[in-house]
Amino acid sequence: MVAAREVGVGLVSVGWMGRVHARAYGAVRVHYPDLAVSPRLVAAADVSEDARTYARDALGFERTTSDWREVIDDPAVDVVSICTPNFLHHAVALAAASAGKPFWIEKPMGRGAAESAEIARAAAEAGLVTAVGFNYRHAPAVARIRELVRSGALGRITNVRVALLADYSADPRGALTWRFRSELAGSGVLGDLLSHGADLAQYTVGRIAETTAITERFIRERPLPGSASAGHFERGSDTAPTGAVENEDYAALLVRFESGAVGVLDSSRVAVGPHAEYTLEVYGTLGSVRWDFQRLNELQIADTRDGYRTVMAESAFGDFSRFQPGQGTSMGFDDLKTIEAQLFLRSVLEGRQLAPSASDAWAAAEIVAAAERSAEARSWERIHEVSGETTIDA
């Protein structure tokens, strides 16, 4: 039996997503024993003492710090997970690249296309593999959609619909946290959710070439947060002073793919009703498929004139068999992050890009940037092409 290679892990920010990353590293050893890797949780950074305590006592990190730079500089740290708010992504990622340490970063990677380009180029110049948190592409049903599209089973792809509708900011009493400020977050729902939609569309169908878009802010003011560390779901009082929301609550894009297919992508963070209705529909001349994240383990397929049939995820769908023995037993959100962690670690061990790359995140950021230009100018905009290695067509 091959001895497992130890990989020292550093984590920057121990919020919800940071905790998901930490759990995913441990789960890789359970679900991918053939990878022969032993992630060692070395160091975690967070400004919150409670978060640092959790990282040590619950997650099992050997040491913690309030200064993220100490994680990057730690000689025992081989790879870095970057789970900070958007405004810190750029600095932490560039520091990791400068230190020659592969990183797994959440999206949006930068506060816009310019920052995303700098991060991707820095990683490429350092010769690093990377990973980006486009976890929805790892759903076994999405893997099956990609196979059906790329094999020609659906015929010529004619049109695509992607919708990411959520209610996490539907309450107007939700505090004005960093997510609603352009300086700290960059765009609003475009980067937060619709970047996932852009990645799903490109991963399954191919590169998007141009777009025209509209955006809107439906809730224009929110209560100021009670503290600088206010959480994503904090609610302000009816008497609290308010501040302006600076980025969009809703976006809708018409897109044209390089292949000639067309599509509609839309996303909302203030929809009343859907909690996480993230859907992907692909239509071709020989059939179509539909997937909804809220029914993660199901896929609707129409490959005859008799309409849709529902197919449960099973061993032939992506990495499903790594987690469950057969149809009807469900996978969950954390499992998608485990697949992502495995791809990141495998990329590091094998020295080749297998996980969604920094250039993939840059490509999504260019779609967001084109949508922003379009919404302002009320025009069609070309999507700027990116350099570096992407996994869209891998």
Automatic annotation (TrEMBL):
Pfam families linked to this entry: GFO_IDH_MocA (PF01408), GFO_IDH_MocA_C3 (PF22725)
SUPFAM superfamilies found in the cross-reference section: Glyceraldehyde-3-phosphate dehydrogenase-like, C-terminal domain, NAD(P)-binding Rossmann-fold domains
Q: Record's InterPro entries?
A: Gfo/Idh/MocA-like_OxRdtase_N, Gfo/Idh/MocA_oxidrdct_glycsds, GFO_IDH_MocA-like_dom, NAD(P)-bd_dom_sf
A GO molecular-function annotation: oxidoreductase activity
Q: Give all residue intervals belonging to the GFO/IDH/MocA-like oxidoreductase domain.
A: 143-290
What name goes with this protein? Gfo/Idh/MocA family oxidoreductase
> What organism is recorded for this protein?
Labedella gwakjiensis
The entry's keywords: NAD, Oxidoreductase
* Domain of life according to the entry: Bacteria
Domain Gfo/Idh/MocA-like oxidoreductase N-terminal stretches: 8-134
